[in-house]
Write a structure and sequence with these properties.
Length: 124
């Protein structure tokens, strides 16, 4: 993740976001995203104001990604068609797109994520 000077978080690891996970294909992560106990502590603990703001921001971000998932998936499909040899497609372009769909639309491509859905993912 990249944090810019205005506090925006920017995902810069497209390989990890798609299929090129650390360990070259070893997939140990089962949670939708990684949230360490240290990071929760830095945010003031699970009941802290910082963590509450983080949760609200995560919910907003997850819902925005879900809302625009069709456009994001189309963009990745276009890149994959033109540049299938990129390292982020190591596992295959179809697999990368399918896995991205599952992460952006965990309840299915036609179902939108509610606030409660997002909070359950954060709590995993």
């Amino acid at each position: 993740m990249l944090l810019d000077k205005t506090g925006h978080l920017i995902h810069i690891d497209f390989g990890f976001m798609l299929t090129d996970a650390p360990g070259r294909g070893l997939r140990f992560e089962t949670a939708p995203f990684k949230l360490s106990a240290d990071f929760v502590q830095i945010l003031g603990g699970p009941d802290g104001e910082g963590f509450r703001r983080f949760r609200n921001s995560m919910v907003s971000g997850m819902q925005a990604l879900n809302k625009h998932s069709a456009k994001i998936i189309l963009l990745v499909q276009m890149v994959a068609a033109a540049q299938s040899d990129l390292s982020c497609f190591t596992g295959g372009t179809k697999e990368a797109v399918d896995e991205l769909k599952e992460r952006l639309c965990p309840l299915g491509i036609d179902r939108k994520l509610s606030k409660g859905d997002c909070e359950r993912y954060i709590d995993q």
